[in-house]
Amino acid sequence: MKTFIPVILLLFFFVSPVSAVVPINGETIHDAQVYGVEKRQLPFREFLLPWTAYEEKAVKISDASDHAILYTPFLLIANNVRDKARAGLTTDMADIENVLTDYAGYYTFTIVIHDEIKKASVVVAQGKNNIAASDVIIDEPEVVKIKDNEKPRYATRVYSYFYSKDIISRQPIFLKVEGNNKQKYSFFFNLPKLK
After folding, report:
1. Do 102 and 161 touch, CB atoms closer than 8 A?
2. Rounded Cα distance, 182 and 192, in Å
3. How many CA atoms lie within 13 A of 48 on its CB side?
4. 16, 27, 60, 128: most buried, per Cβ within 10 A?
5. Dmax over Cα atoms in the chain, in whole Å?
6. Helices and strands per DSSP (H, E), number in the chain
7. Is this prediction's pTM over 0.90?
8. Residue 149: its pLDDT value, please?
9. What is the pLDDT averaged over residues 71-100?
10. pLDDT for 137-146, tens place per residue?
């Protein structure tokens, strides 16, 4: 009975046709927990693969390919469970409530651009609508592995947040990024097929 009440509260606050790619319910929470435990030994990049989109112009997919990750509620729960399982801990409903509350009402993307970027505009294109990110945070560019005689190469992480009420979860989107390097990047996410 103690876990039943928090699950009902979670369902009340988080089930909405536009607040998630798939609705958060008891089955979704269970499936995310199973995914997090079963896939805990995968390298992080492989763990994230179902929610990863590569830049449309990428010639080949490798560690040096520009990519974006959509953190759905399912993935947020699964990742939390994975982290705990790798540390030998279990996840309780309070953990799940916290992770969902932190990102409630948002579509959250992490974008990795293999260039030195200081500023960027990020929009979601869906049908005829272009939706600007409500917030964009850019980490300091990191120098990636270089050989002795090569000039430095960079990777920049761009975090973008969109109000979920502005995006239709039943339609695909293009995440479009333009950096101060004047390059344009596009990532396709088929929202109806994502957990």
Report:
1. no
2. 31
3. 16
4. 16
5. 64
6. 5, 10
7. no
8. 74
9. 94
10. 999 999 987 6
Q: Which helix (H) or strand (E) holds 98?
A: helix 93-103
Residues in the chain: 195
The Cα–Cα gap between 110 and 130 comes to 19
Residue 12 — very low, low, confident or very high, per pLDDT cuts 50/70/90?
A: very low
- Separation between Cα atoms, residue 10 and residue 161, nearest integer Å: 22
Cα 61 to chain centroid distance, Å, stands at: 18
pLDDT (tens digit per residue) in 45-75: 999 999 999 999 887 788 789 999 999 999 9
Bridge partners, residue 144, by sequence:
153
Answer yes or no: are the C-beta atoms of 149 and 143 closer than 8 Å. no
pLDDT band at 180 (very low <50, low <70, confident <90, very high): very high
Distance separating alpha carbons of residues 130 and 43, to the nearest angstrom: 34
Q: 59-74: b or e for each residue (b if 16 or more CB lie within 10 Å)?
A: eeeeeeebbbbbbbbb
Closest-CA residue to 37 (of 27, 45, 47)? 47
Give every CB contact of residue 75 below 8 A, 6+ residues apart in sequence. 32, 48, 51, 195
CA distance 84 to 82: 5
